[in-house]
C-alpha cells in the first residue's frame, strides 16, 4: 500500500512538472509573443500571479495544482488569438466562485471589463435554490444574459468547458456522463451557433466518447476498418482537383478530412442508417482566394465528378445565422462512393473555424469593420428577448435548447426578405419571426400562393404570406407544433398575460363578495385600511392582490379580514349574494371533472392553489370529502352564461348489434358532440358504455337523456 501511494505521488509530481513546462505561465507568455506586446503580456503575468495565490492549495481531480486549469483555458483562447482582457478573465475565471476574492477586488486590480467577464462565467451559489436543476438553470441563464452584453463571456466559458472535457478522466463515470450530456445538449450547439466549428467538433467528439463510450469505440473501429480504401481515394481526388483547378488558373488549397464520429453517429440515428450507408465519412475542402473563384471551382468539380443535384447548398448567397459561408456539393467518385466537397474563400474558412472569435483576431490586426457577414447580434437580440419574456429559468433553458437547432431553412416574405428558421418550423414560427404582433394575430397562411394550415412545415425557398384578423388571438394548441423558441415564448407570454387579466377580474369579484359577507365593500374601505392590509400581506398593490386571489394563491375570506379595522364589528348572519359564474373566465375558472357541472346545476366553488376557482355541483362526493372550509365560495350561474360543458353519461343497454350506431345517431340529432367513448363493463346480455359529451346547459342535457331513453335496447341512463 505504501509503495503504491509513493508511486502515485511520484507520478503526480512528474505529471505536474510536465504540465508546468508545457502549459505554465512561461509557455503561455512565449506563445503570446507571437501577437501581443511585452507590456500587455506583463498584465497577463500579473493576473497569473494573483490567480496562483488565490488558488494555492487547491488541486484538481487529476492531481495537478488547480491554477493549471485556468492557464490551459487561457492557452485555448490564445490559440484563437483573443485579446489580453479575455486572457486575463480566463486566468481568473474561477477566483470569484472558488476563492475568497470578490468582484470588487478583481475590478480594482484588472479593470471593470475583466470583472464583468469573470462574474458572467461564475456560477451562482447553489445554496440559494431548492434543487440542483434550478441552480444550474439560473446560473446558465445568468451566463446567457452576460453574453448578450459581451460575447467574450461565452468564449471563456466554452474554453473552460473544452479543457474540462479534455481532463474528464478524473471524474466518476456517472459525473462524466452528466457533464458530457450537458456539453452535447448546450455547449457544442452554442459553439455551432457562434460559428466556432473547431471548438464545436472537439466538444462533440469528447462528449460522445464520454456519454456513449461503447458506441464511440464501435464507430471508431468501424471507421478505421474502411480508412484504407477511402484514404487512397481521397488522395486521388485531392490530386485530380488540384490539377484541374490549377489548369484553369485557380490557386486552391485542396485537403481531405474525416468527419467527426459524433456527426456520423447523429446521422445514423436520425436517418436510421447503418454505418456503411453513411457516405460522407470523408470530405474534401477547397480553399480559394475570391468569391467568384468559388463558383468557377464548383463548375470544374462538377465537370470532373458527377454531382448529386439534390445535395447542393449555396451558403455563400444564403449565409447561416452564425455567418458561415461555403458552397456544399456532393459528387460521385470512383466505385460509386459519394464525397461532400466544401468550397470557400480563405476569409470564409477563418470564420468557419473561429466564428465570432474572428472579430477579435481582426481587431488585433488593425482590420476594422465587420468580418464577412457574421451577424451574431441577431441571435443575441433574440436571447435578450427570451430573457425578458420568460421569468422561469428552467423554461428559459428549455427554450434555449429548442433554439439551438443545427439545421435551418430559408424562406421569403412576399417582399423578398429572407427569414431563417429552424428545420421543421411552421407558418406560425414564420409569423413570429417576422413580428410578434403578426404571430399573435395570424389565422392562416399562403405558401407559394396556396392556402396552407398554420402547422404546415416550411421548406427552403418557399414564399410565405401570413393572413391576420383583427380579433384573432394565439391558441394554446399551437405549442404542440411550434419549433422555434421565439414563437413558443410569444404564445406563452400572451396566454400568461391573458390569464392574469382574467384572474385579476375574478379576484376582485371574489374579494368583493368576501367583504360583503363581513358587511363591507371595496368602495367603502378607507385608503389607510387598504394600505395596512396590503402591507400585512406583503402585496405591492390591489391589482397584484386580485391576481393572487384569482389564481388561487390567496383565499378571499382570509384576505377580507386583513382589511377590517381593529375595532370594526363583523356582521352577524348577513347573507351576501352568491358570486355569478359567466362561463367565459377561461383559465382562471375550472369546472371540476369529478362532477361536471353545467349551467342550471346548483353549484359552489373552491379556491385551489395554482388552479384558481374550481366549480363543483352541490352533492359532489369528492368536494364533500374536502370538507366545508374557508376556501368554499357560494356560486350561481350568470344570466348571460355561454359555452359548452363536459358531462359524463353512462348508458346501460342490451348488447345488440348496431347499439353504438343508434346511440351516436341520437347524440348527433340532439346537436351534441361526443368527446370520448369507453366500454368499462360488460356482463353477458347487458353492456355499460361511458360517454363524455358536450352540452350547453341542464335543459339541453335533459333533452339528450330523453332521446337516448327512447331507444328500445336502453335499460338505464345515468349522469355522473
UniProtKB/TrEMBL annotation:
The entry's keywords: Hydrolase
The reaction(s) annotated as catalysed by this protein in its Swiss-Prot or TrEMBL entry are: guanosine 3',5'-bis(diphosphate) + H2O = GDP + diphosphate + H(+)
Q: Recorded E.C. number(s)?
A: 3.1.7.2
Q: Where is the ACT domain?
A: 648-720
Q: Does the keyword Transferase apply?
A: no
Limits of the TGS domain: 407-468
Q: SMART domains from the xrefs?
A: HDc, RelA_SpoT
* Any matching Pfam family: ACT_4
**Membrane-crossing residue ranges in chain numbering:** none
Q: Which GO biological process categories is it annotated with?
A: guanosine tetraphosphate biosynthetic process; nucleobase-containing small molecule interconversion; response to starvation
Top enzyme category: hydrolase
Give the matching InterPro entries.
ACT-like_dom_sf, ACT_dom, Beta-grasp_dom_sf, HD/PDEase_dom, HD_domain, NT_sf, RelA/Spo_fam, RelA_SpoT
UniProt xrefs under SUPFAM superfamilies: ACT-like (SSF55021), HD-domain/PDEase-like (SSF109604), Nucleotidyltransferase (SSF81301), TGS-like (SSF81271)
Q: Does the keyword Plastid apply?
A: no
Q: In which pathway does it act?
A: Purine metabolism; ppGpp biosynthesis; ppGpp from GDP: step 1/1
Top-level taxon in the UniProt lineage: Bacteria
Gene Ontology terms, MF aspect: GTP diphosphokinase activity; guanosine-3',5'-bis(diphosphate) 3'-diphosphatase activity
Listed GO CC annotations: plasma membrane
Residue ranges annotated for the HD domain, each copy included: 66-165
**Tell me, what does this protein do in biology?**
In eubacteria ppGpp (guanosine 3'-diphosphate 5'-diphosphate) is a mediator of the stringent response that coordinates a variety of cellular activities in response to changes in nutritional abundance.
Q: List, alphabetically, the NCBIfam families matched.
A: spoT_relA
What family, per the record? Answer: Belongs to the relA/spoT family.
Q: What is this protein called?
A: guanosine-3',5'-bis(diphosphate) 3'-diphosphatase
Amino acid at each position: 500500500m505504501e509503495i503504491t501511494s509513493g508511486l502515485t505521488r511520484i507520478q503526480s509530481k512528474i505529471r505536474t512538472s510536465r504540465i508546468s513546462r508545457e502549459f505554465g505561465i512561461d509557455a503561455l507568455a512565449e506563445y503570446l509573443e507571437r501577437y501581443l506586446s511585452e507590456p500587455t503580456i506583463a498584465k497577463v503575468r500579473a493576473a497569473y500571479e494573483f490567480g496562483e495565490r488565490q488558488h494555492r492549495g487547491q488541486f484538481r481531480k487529476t492531481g495537478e495544482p488547480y491554477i493549471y486549469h485556468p492557464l490551459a483555458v487561457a492557452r485555448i483562447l490564445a490559440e484563437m488569438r483573443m485579446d489580453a482582457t479575455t486572457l486575463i478573465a480566463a486566468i481568473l475565471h474561477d477566483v470569484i466562485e472558488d476563492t475568497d476574492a470578490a468582484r470588487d477586488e478583481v475590478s480594482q486590480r484588472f479593470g471593470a471589463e475583466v470583472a464583468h467577464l469573470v462574474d458572467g462565467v461564475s456560477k451562482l451559489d447553489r445554496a440559494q435554490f431548492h434543487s440542483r436543476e434550478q441552480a444550474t438553470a439560473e446560473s446558465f441563464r445568468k451566463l446567457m444574459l452576460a453574453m448578450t452584453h459581451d460575447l467574450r463571456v461565452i468564449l471563456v466559458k466554452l474554453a473552460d468547458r473544452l479543457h474540462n472535457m479534455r481532463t474528464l478522466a478524473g471524474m466518476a463515470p456517472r459525473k462524466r456522463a452528466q457533464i458530457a450530456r450537458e456539453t452535447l445538449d448546450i455547449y457544442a450547439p452554442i459553439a455551432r451557433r457562434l460559428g466556432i466549428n473547431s471548438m464545436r467538433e472537439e466538444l462533440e467528439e469528447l462528449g460522445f466518447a464520454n456519454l456513449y463510450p461503447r458506441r464511440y469505440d464501435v464507430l471508431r473501429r468501424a471507421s478505421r476498418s474502411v480508412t484504407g480504401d477511402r484514404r487512397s481515394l481521397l488522395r486521388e481526388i485531392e490530386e485530380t482537383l488540384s490539377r484541374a483547378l490549377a489548369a484553369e488558373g485557380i490557386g486552391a488549397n485542396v485537403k481531405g478530412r474525416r468527419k467527426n464520429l459524433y456527426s456520423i453517429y447523429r446521422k445514423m440515428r436520425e436517418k436510421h442508417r447503418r454505418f456503411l450507408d453513411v457516405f460522407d465519412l470523408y470530405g474534401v475542402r477547397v480553399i480559394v482566394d475570391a468569391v467568384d473563384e468559388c463558383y468557377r471551382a464548383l463548375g470544374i468539380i462538377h465537370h470532373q465528378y458527377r454531382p448529386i443535384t439534390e445535395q447542393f447548398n449555396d451558403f455563400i448567397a444564403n449565409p447561416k445565422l452564425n455567418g458561415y459561408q461555403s458552397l456544399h456539393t456532393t459528387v460521385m467518385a470512383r466505385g460509386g462512393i459519394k464525397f461532400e466537397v466544401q468550397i470557400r474563400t480563405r476569409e470564409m474558412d477563418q470564420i468557419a473555424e473561429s466564428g465570432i472569435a474572428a472579430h477579435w483576431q481582426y481587431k488585433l490586426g488593425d482590420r476594422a469593420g465587420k468580418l464577412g457577414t457574421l451577424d451574431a447580434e441577431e441571435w443575441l437580440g433574440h436571447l435578450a428577448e427570451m430573457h425578458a419574456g420568460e421569468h422561469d429559468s428552467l423554461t428559459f433553458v428549455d427554450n434555449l435548447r429548442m433554439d439551438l437547432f443545427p439545421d435551418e431553412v430559408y424562406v421569403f416574405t412576399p417582399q423578398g426578405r429572407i427569414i431563417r428558421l429552424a428545420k421543421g418550423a411552421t407558418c406560425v414560427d414564420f409569423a413570429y419571426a417576422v413580428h410578434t404582433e403578426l404571430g399573435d394575430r395570424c389565422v392562416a397562411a399562403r405558401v407559394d400562393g396556396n392556402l396552407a394550415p398554420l402547422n404546415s412545415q416550411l421548406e427552403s425557398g418557399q414564399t410565405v404570406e401570413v393572413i391576420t384578423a383583427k380579433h384573432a388571438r394565439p391558441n394554446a394548441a399551437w405549442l404542440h407544433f411550434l419549433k422555434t423558441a421565439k414563437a413558443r415564448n410569444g404564445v406563452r407570454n400572451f396566454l400568461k398575460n391573458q390569464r392574469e387579466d382574467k384572474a385579476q377580474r375574478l379576484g376582485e369579484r371574489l374579494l368583493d363578495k368576501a367583504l360583503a359577507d363581513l358587511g363591507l365593500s371595496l368602495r367603502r374601505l378607507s385608503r389607510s385600511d387598504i394600505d395596512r392590509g396590503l402591507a400585512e400581506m406583503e402585496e405591492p398593490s390591489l391589482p397584484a392582490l386580485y391576481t393572487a386571489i384569482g389564481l388561487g394563491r390567496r383565499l378571499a375570506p382570509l384576505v377580507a379580514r386583513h382589511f377590517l379595522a381593529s375595532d370594526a364589528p363583523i356582521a352577524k348572519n348577513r347573507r351576501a349574494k352568491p358570486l355569478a359564474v359567466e362561463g367565459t373566465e377561461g383559465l382562471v375558472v375550472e369546472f371540476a371533472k369529478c362532477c361536471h357541472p353545467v349551467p342550471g346545476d346548483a353549484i359552489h366553488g373552491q379556491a385551489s392553489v395554482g388552479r384558481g376557482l374550481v366549480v363543483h355541483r352541490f352533492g359532489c362526493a369528492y368536494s364533500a370529502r374536502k370538507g366545508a372550509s374557508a376556501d368554499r365560495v357560494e356560486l350561481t350561474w350568470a344570466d348571460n352564461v355561454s359555452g359548452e360543458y363536459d358531462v359524463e353519461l353512462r348508458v346501460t343497454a342490451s348488447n345488440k348489434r348496431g347499439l353504438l350506431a343508434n346511440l351516436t345517431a341520437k347524440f348527433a340529432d340532439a346537436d351534441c358532440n361526443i368527446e370520448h367513448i369507453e366500454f368499462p363493463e360488460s356482463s353477458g346480455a347487458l353492456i355499460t358504455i361511458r360517454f363524455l359529451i358536450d352540452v350547453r346547459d341542464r335543459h339541453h342535457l335533459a333533452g339528450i337523456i330523453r332521446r337516448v331513453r327512447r331507444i328500445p335496447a336502453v335499460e338505464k341512463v345515468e349522469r355522473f
